[in-house]
Amino acid sequence: MASRQLGQLTAFIVIAATTVAMMFSASAPSPLYPVYQELWGFSSFTLTVIFAVYVIALLAGLLTVGSLSDHIGRRPVLLGGLAMMAVSMVMFAFADGVPMLIAARILQGLAAGALTGTLSATIVDLQPNPRIGSVTSSAAPLGGLAFGAIVAGILIEYAPMPRELIFLILIAAFAISAVLIAFVPETSARAGFDSRRHLWRVLRPSAGLPPSVRGVFLTSTFGVLAVWSLGGLTLSLGSSIVPRIFGVENHMATGFILGTFFTCGALGSAATSKWSAERKVAIGLGSLGTGLIINLIGTMSATLPIYLLGSAIAGFGFGATFAGIMAVLIAATGPEQRGQVFSTLFVVSYIGFSIPAVIGGIAVGHFGLRPTAIGYSIYVLVLVVVAGIAAFLRGRSARRVRPEPFDEPIRTDLVTVAADMTDTSR
């Protein structure tokens, strides 16, 4: 079997491509939401519920089976997650109403929760060098989100079977990934479980923070909520904002507009990979706030070029800010604590991703789409301001404590976060 295994670089590319495919599938339904609404006549609130159940299911998967690969190996978890993902794509392709759509989104979320930590850990295991691994770990998810929205929009507008084709393509992609992953070298020892109690300790949901990290984590929370809340707005209500406020009826154009935010997020994450953590957060939050203000002007005046410019700048800020926050937390957290800390970080991220979007869906029914979009943007802008103040105070406090400048580049390999997330002490 060893002679049939893929080489390290080829295996790394396979895992990175699988990560892109998984995130592609997360954003692919977004350009379809207006089609589903017109076909089945559901409200904006129902739309955001369809969006939010994915995140809730993903959290359930992340907090339960996310560390399973440390005990039974990477490949079994990856193959099982891909099988679940393929089944969810079948459900999407043949959905005949809202219940089937929600069921498909739940199964997709559970699969993504199982895959997220394991794919990230395998990237760490197989990385050719730390820089390539770090850039891949941070940019591939955002690139997948962008690619999914753009390709889905093109297929919906110009391809036959607009509601089915994108999911049939994803089924094929996951099947190909599964075949290739069967030949990826196993990078985690199959330690198994000592007892049923040990199995329960691994699978029970858990999240928390060691006392030494709580202060830094709290000051970082506002930035996390800001970036992921804006991402949630883009994927939940963005597909309604573009046609109804800006009059864009072409689904391909809608996909490109939604994809701009995440494309620039991937660029922001990659372009700032050599910066210090403090510089990433400072410039990231500045870009996020500037982009939001421009975005607001575009929304209020219904001027698409201004809105698009704001999305691009805010997207860059998303990538830079989140990468900087991760670097700050790495510097404050011991290796034996990172799994716990970063599991909690992603819980906060996905809460910010989903709950404001659901509230926004409710608000649309009461106040209308444009006022809700404006109010939502103002909410995120307030978070950005608070996050900036918190980052400034954190930096000043750190400079008092340490003799060396806080803005010295943090050389800790960011991609090790993913590996530590899957390492369990439970």
Share of helix among residues? over 70%
Poorly predicted tracts of residues: 403-426
| Count of extended strands | 0
Number of domains: 1
- What class, by secondary structure content? mainly alpha
Task: Supply the CATH superfamily name.
Answer: MFS general substrate transporter like domains
N/C terminus separation: 33 Å
| Biggest β-sheet description | none
Which strand-content bin applies to the residues? under 5%
Any overview of this molecule?
There is one protein chain. The protein has one domain (2-184, 205-422): Up-down Bundle (Growth Hormone, Chain: A), CATH 1.20.1250. The protein has 17 helices and no strands. It has helices at 8-27, 33-40, 44-64, 69-72, 74-93, 98-126, 130-158, 165-181, 196-203, 214-236, 238-246, 251-271, 277-301, 304-332, 338-367, 369-401, 416-422. α3 packs parallel to α6 (98-126) and α3 runs antiparallel to α15 (338-367). The protein starts with 7 loop residues before the first helix and ends with a helix. 55% of the residues are buried.
